[in-house]
Design brief:
about 500 residues; Rossmann fold; Arc Repressor Mutant, subunit A; 6-stranded parallel beta sheet; 18 helices
Length: about 500
């Protein structure tokens, strides 16, 4: 943590109302759940690693799904487990009203809280205002809050993204610091790759530098990123410029002067280097807006966080914005959807520069899936079809990956996804670009490929361990998918 100011122990994370009760509300929608839980769980992990207190707040009523008797006043299944420093039950919108939370914070000398949870504009916003009025410093972690489309009393419908934006505009500056949850995830793979190369006696392939228009910036955790170098007047040859996302950068009304300075630097220094083939640009989440405003996305395919897709397309019509993509590479410019997608993009870049074996080693150290198979110039089949954001399809794919040898049928996969078989088939075609059972065969072939590469085994044994009924079945599917025999994977007799 040499590049970070050590956070004060006088800080706590509030996880507000992330409870099963909400699934019973008529307004509940699951479209944003994957992105929300990715951000929320990343935030919880950060606080846990720093050994900072996390408070669970649950809402209770006398009847309905928020009553104790409903059995639904419990954490949502997708929420990461954590050690509760305190659990409180509230009846008002503010977590500080009528609960022991305020006294608990005072007794422990906690002067700062990070607010996250459900719903953005209701209990999260009210708690933020109340905490600020009580003299606490507040970080409103917008990406780690969830809300749903709502109809205003006047009859107008508001999307979840519009509600979140309005909440940020109300809170920013007056009540709280509105910050994103993006961390150094995109930088860590490059650091690990350099360390692994040095350990093997080679020169580090990456010289990691952090530069910006300000010498210190706040992050979504109670940590300041300090000792930031000034933006350079010239780039080194073959530079990779990574633009990290911050929540405010996606909203023109919240852009700071230093953000405008960053765009000017991209126009004056980075864009000419990209055109000359001397530099590449990578963006994470809303970092795409910096690149877009500098003209770097004009005429290129690109993506950003799914809640910002329409805004990016509207702000920069010349950019070819792609929805439902984890990352997109178009020539010297690559863009990613955010948070863990930045890690996927970094692994992709490392694989291009150092080879897939090196990228696989980095992925193993990070304990994440590597989306490219060693020795394979394309994305690994089992993971290529996960370059989408639909939760039901991911549920089915998770179930298959957990036990690929199981006798899967479309019916069983649909049960795992909580949809009908016909609906699952349509969702797979629309989001994964493949039929459910074809996806299963891709997964099994990848498993067979790994077994073949791992050592000499009879093909019949490989077929059995990867879910095929026989070696003949394995050969037939392998030839259909790859146009060759299994022996091509590792010189294996077939």
């Amino acid at each position: 943590m040499s590049d970070f100011a050590r956070p004060s122990t006088q800080t706590a994370l509030l996880v507000i109302d992330v409870q099963e009760s909400f699934r019973q509300r008529t307004y509940f929608r699951g479209d944003d759940l994957p992105a929300y839980f990715e951000a929320q769980n990343r935030l919880i992990d950060g606080f846990s690693r720093l050994r900072l207190p996390i408070v669970r707040v649950l809402h209770v009523d006398d009847d309905g799904p928020f009553s104790r008797g409903s059995g639904l006043v419990r954490p949502m299944a997708e929420l990461a487990p954590f050690d509760e420093a305190l659990r409180v039950e509230k009846r008002a919108h503010s977590a500080l009203a009528g609960t022991p939370l305020a006294q608990w914070l005072t007794e422990r000398g906690i002067a700062r809280v990070a607010v996250s949870g459900i719903r953005t504009e209701q209990c999260c916003e009210t708690t933020t205002r109340d905490a600020s009025d009580r003299g606490l410093q507040v970080d409103f972690v917008s990406q780690a809050t969830l809300t749903f489309p709502m109809r205003h009393a006047g009859g107008r419908d508001y999307s979840a993204a519009e509600i979140r934006e309005r909440t940020e505009l109300v809170l920013a500056g007056r009540f709280a610091a509105v910050v994103g949850v993006d961390l150094a995830g995109v930088a860590e793979p490059f650091r690990i790759a350099s360390n692994q190369a040095a350990a093997a006696g080679s020169a580090p392939p990456f010289d990691l530098r952090i530069a910006g228009a300000a010498g210190e910036v706040r992050t979504s955790l109670p940590v300041a990123l300090a000792r930031i170098a000034p933006l350079p007047a010239r780039l080194p040859r073959d530079a990779w410029v990574v633009l990290a996302g911050i929540s405010a950068s996606a909203h023109p009304d919240l852009v700071h002067g230093r953000d405008a300075a960053t765009v000017k630097w991209l126009e004056a220094v980075v864009a000419p280097a990209v055109r000359a083939g001397a530099a590449r640009v990578w963006t994470v989440c809303s970092g795409a807006f910096f690149a877009a405003r500098a003209g770097l996305l004009d005429g290129r395919q690109c993506t950003t966080h799914h809640t910002l897709i329409e805004r990016l397309a509207a702000e920069r019509p010349a950019a070819r914005v792609q929805a439902n993509r984890i990352f997109v590479v178009d020539g010297p410019v690559a863009t990613s959807a955010g948070i863990t997608a930045g890690v996927d993009l970094a692994l992709h870049a490392i694989g291009e520069k150092l080879g897939q074996a090196a990228a696989l080693e980095v992925a193993r150290e990070l304990v994440v899936y590597h989306r490219r198979a060693g020795g394979d110039p394309q994305l690994a089949s089992a993971l290529r079809h996960r370059n989408h954001l639909h939760p039901a399809v991911h549920r089915a794919q998770d179930a298959v990956l957990a036990d690929p040898r199981s006798p899967w049928t479309v019916q069983r996969m649909a049960e795992a996804a909580h949809v009908t078989p016909r609906h699952l088939a349509r969702l797979f075609h629309e989001n994964a670009g493949v039929a459910p059972l074809d996806y299963l065969q891709h997964v099994r072939i990848e498993l067979a490929r790994a077994l073949l590469a791992d050592g000499a085994r009879p093909l019949e044994r490989v077929a059995e361990r990867s879910g095929f009924s026989s070696a003949h079945h394995l050969r037939r599917v392998w030839r259909r998918l790859h146009g060759s025999a299994p022996r091509a994977a590792a010189g294996h007799p077939s």
